[in-house]
Amino acid sequence: MIGSLRGNLLSRQAPVVILECSGVGYEVETPMSTFLELPADGAEVFLHTHLVVRENAHALYGFSTRGEKDLFRTLLSVSGVGARMGLAILSALTVSDFERCVQLEDTALLVKIPGVGKKTAERLIIEMRDKIDKTPNLKVVAGTRAVAADSRSEAVDALVSLGYKPVEVRKLLASIDVQDKSAEDIIRLALRQAVN
Question: How far is CA 71 from CA 7, 23, 30, 42, 170, in A?
Fold first, then answer.
């Protein structure tokens, strides 16, 4: 198994990069989240990797963080989810965004990802709920989305800790414009809506 690679970035053509390590060029497929963070060609790169061995090919997948690699591996254990879909999910969502999506049972967000239908989204939520809790690196990786997403995440955590179920929180926040609002403002608006 090839667990990681450190080498010079020879070339890239989304989503594939070629990394030269000690004279050997490794072709590595990456999610767009990793691909867009790559430095200029020729620079040194470190990727966490996962090797998939098939009857007719060996495919190497690379990730900028350990959390992304662990989520990818966990996604592959879900029935009906292959490497293509795993990369699509990681290209669309950060690890923490995906965790939150599962916690809130947000199938609407998942079906926006190419290749993910309603049934697959429901299966992902059901099967990933327990797996996320059992995978240590997934619970500690922070997302890198915009401030609005961070404020929304804080508000969601606070409302859940107040005793609201994730489904109730999703309904409360669905009609609130969270853009440019602090977590406190979002919580205040959600609580006001809950009592009306």
Answer: 24, 30, 13, 29, 23
